[in-house]
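User: My advisor, Dr. K., asked me to get a structural model of this assembly before our group meeting. I'm new to this, so sorry if the format is off. These are the inputs:
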Amino acid sequence: MKKYAALLKRTKLFSGVGENDILSMLHCLNTQVREYNKGEYAFRQGEYIRSLMILAVGRLHIQKEDYWGNLNILNEIRPGEMFGEAYIIPNSGTLMNDVVAIEESVVLFFDIDRILTVCSSACPFHTQLIKNLFYTISDKNKSLVQKISYMSQRSTREKLLSYLSDEAKRQNSNSFSIPFNRQQLADFLSVDRSAMSNELSKLRNEGMLDFHKNEFTLREL
Amino acid sequence: MKKYAALLKRTKLFSGVGENDILSMLHCLNTQVREYNKGEYAFRQGEYIRSLMILAVGRLHIQKEDYWGNLNILNEIRPGEMFGEAYIIPNSGTLMNDVVAIEESVVLFFDIDRILTVCSSACPFHTQLIKNLFYTISDKNKSLVQKISYMSQRSTREKLLSYLSDEAKRQNSNSFSIPFNRQQLADFLSVDRSAMSNELSKLRNEGMLDFHKNEFTLREL
DNA sequence: AAAAGTCTGTTGTATTTACAACGAAAGCAG
DNA sequence: CTGCTTTCGTTGTAAATACAACAGACTTTT
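Assistant: The format is fine. Below is the predicted structure of the whole assembly, which you can bring to the meeting.
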């Protein structure tokens, strides 16, 4: 378990907690370790989850098969990332997705009830952990809501403008850089890359914005 | 404050807590009450939020104006609903949206630090509150992720199939009813209603599914 | 420096979607 | 029952998108 303390120290969940304290908390949280071979399913649709998980080593895909058997990859989990935080509500249905190891992987399991129930005196960092958990989920929530606000725009143009508008606000400048290349931006907004490139060119021709690589500038009309 | 206890008892956040205990907790949480006139802004883009809010009376719109001034309504808040839970992360930027009262409204403010920091002994229901908060956000998270998984499908047909597929899974039957009428479903999936109706008819003609009003049945191929 | 590979913008075409309009069916009120 | 309103499916047309293909710019490798 000790070998994971350094990794955990850098995760959002254990942020602000020292390695020694993490070690004692791991015990308090009844932490389990499981390894998965490449291709192995960590969870299947329909299972109940009672833990919060952090991927220590490897890579996982959150994916879904529809009624007619079509596969759809929803998300890729990388080391240090937490997952399962949306599926531990009691009496509220089962996992809707499959979780598959696409590399040999190691997953840490934390008992959710031990996280949320403060043990009377043992863990001075328990309150910190709860705050971290809350902040992490809250932050994810915020990202999801924003993403939906872009995706719910009907046209590629509107999706681009709402995203770029928000980035300008967030970075507090009408000139800013984005953390995506074109393909990643297209995937993020759920549009076709070439159609998006085309639309960006139109917007530039119309004088609404300018860009070089990942640097964008919004113009007044 | 007493007059709000009955309302709060029915909210997700205070679920499982009796009215008398809610009253003592309201004090412990340093609850503030603010009223807004119709049309008044409760919050503006760029502000910092340090509280969790529950709407007691009225109706609010979460909305956004882009760089060029176009208005966009993201969400409508009704009495008993919590909001702001995604915007109270310390040091992580400001509010990206405006919150406007579209009717005369009353909002309750709860100090977020007092919720997350367990007061040594005073509140026996504090742990319950933390769990409720976690479950609420977690549940919202889950809904958001699912919605994104539908919206990220490229065509109306795929959006429909992924949503209906999930509902069949969730209700554990290939026959099920949905909580939307056609317009609401179209809004939820971010597609045009008439195009969606058209696509549903095609799917029925192709023998993939059947429907009468809000009752759907998925067919094997 | 040459070669191989990646990223981006552009174009043409087939497909899909948005929009407006309308009639039938269902639900509701007087 | 009658008239009014809402919901739903259908259709035609204009607009937008997906897809495939390709060329130039830029990177990385050899």
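One thing worth pointing out at the meeting: Residues 32 and 188 of chain B are 34 Å apart (CA to CA).

User: Perfect, thanks a lot.
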